[in-house]
Amino acid sequence: MSTVEFWGGLGVIGSSKILIRDGGHRVLLDFGLDIPASTDLFRAPVTERPGRELADRLRVGAAPRIPGVFDPAVTGDPELAATDGNAAMFISHPHIDHVGLAGFVDPTIPVHAHTEAVRLMRALADSGDGLTGAEPAWVALADGQVVRHGDIEIECVPVDHDVPGACGYLIRTSGGTLAYTGDIRFHGRHPERSHDFVTRAAGCDVLVTEGTTLSWPAPDGRPRDENDVAASFVEALTGTAGLVLLAMYPRDVERAAEFMALARDHGRVLVWPVPVARFLRGYGLPDVSSWDTVTLSDIRADPKRYVVHPAPYDFASLLDLPTDDETVFLHANGEPLGPFDPRWTLLTDWLTQLRVPLRTIGCSGHAAPDDLHAMVERIRPRVVFPIHTTEPTRLHPPIGVRRVVARYGVRYGFDGDPRG
C-alpha cells in the first residue's frame, strides 16, 4: 500500500516535509526548517546553542519527530535514532524552508537534489554559510533523471522558481503516481520548465502543490515578472542622483548576475557583503565586488557610482553610508522578506529615521492563484493536497478532483482517505 504523510507545510508558508511509504521503503520530499504558524521560539534575539540546535528544536516541537531520519549523534533522543536503511530524501530546491533541516539527516541516508541545487549548496558551505549541522550525502540529479528506491521510482523534473536547481518530482509507486510541485511559478525566467512539469504530471493520482499566493487576496492584473523587476531596477539606477541601497536574496543567482550587469551598464558598481560575495564567486559569477574590493571612502567620495547591498539586519551600518534625500532603498525579495516578517518594522523604522524612501521592486517566486488553478485543471489528479499556504481551502479544484486539507503526521492513502 502506498501512503503519504505531511510533517510540515500545513497552515504555514514553508516548512515542507512529505513522507511517502511503499513496500517497506520511505521517500522524504523536502526537509525544510520549521516556520511556525504562531510563535517562533527561536526568533531573534534568541541564539541557538551550538551542537544542541536539533535537540532543542525537537524538545519544543520545532522539528518533526520522524524516526530513523536524523543523525543519532545530534538528536539527543534514542527513540528517533534507529534507522532501517530504507529511507531516501529528495530536495526540491535550496531554500531554507525546504532544505534547512538536511544538515541533521543521518549520514547513511542519500539526499538527492538537482545538480544546480547541489552546486549552490556546496558554494554556500564553502563560503561559510552552509547548513546548520553537517553537509548531507548529496546526490546530484540531472534533468529528467529517474532514481529507483526499492519499488519506488522518483523522477526529477525542473520547474521555474527564484533559485537555481528548482525541481518537482514524479513519484511512481505500487499504488499510483504522486506529483510534487516543490515551489513553482509560471511568470519567471523559465516558464517552459513549469509547463513541462504540468504536462508530465497530467493524470497523476495525487498532486501535492504549493499554494503560497492563496494566503492573500488575489491581486488584480498579471503578476510582476523578472522583466518588471529589471525595469524597476534600471529606473532607480537612472533616476537616483545618490547612493542606491538594495536588499535581495543572493540565492537568486540569476537576478544577482543581472543586477550586477545592469549596474555596470549604468556606471555603477554593486557592492555585496563579503560573505555573500564569497558565495557568488564560489558559485561561478565573475566580477563580484564587495568590501574587500571597494572601500567606504570610495563610496563616500562618489555615491552615485555605487549600489550597496547591506548585510541583512546590520541596520546600524547604514549610519556609515552617505545617505541623504538623493538615496533610495530597493527591496527586491531580500531580507527581511516583507511586511509579514516581524523584522520588517525594524527596516522601515531605520529608513524613516534616515529619511530614505523604500521601494519594493521584486516579484513573487510562487505561482499566482489563477496559474495554480489552471495547473490543477490541466493535471486533473484524483486527489490534490494544497500545502505551503495559510489558506489551503482557497484552492478550488475542478469537478472530479478531490481536495484534501492534510493534518500533521496523519497517514493518507492515495485516494485521500486517512489510514489508521
From TrEMBL:
It holds the Pfam family Lactamase_B_2. Transmembrane segments: none annotated. Keywords: Exonuclease, Hydrolase, Nuclease, RNA-binding. InterPro entries: Metallo-B-lactamas, RibonucZ/Hydroxyglut_hydro, RNase_J_2. It comes from the Bacteria. Residues 14-233 form the Metallo-beta-lactamase domain. This is MBL fold metallo-hydrolase. It comes from Rugosimonospora acidiphila.
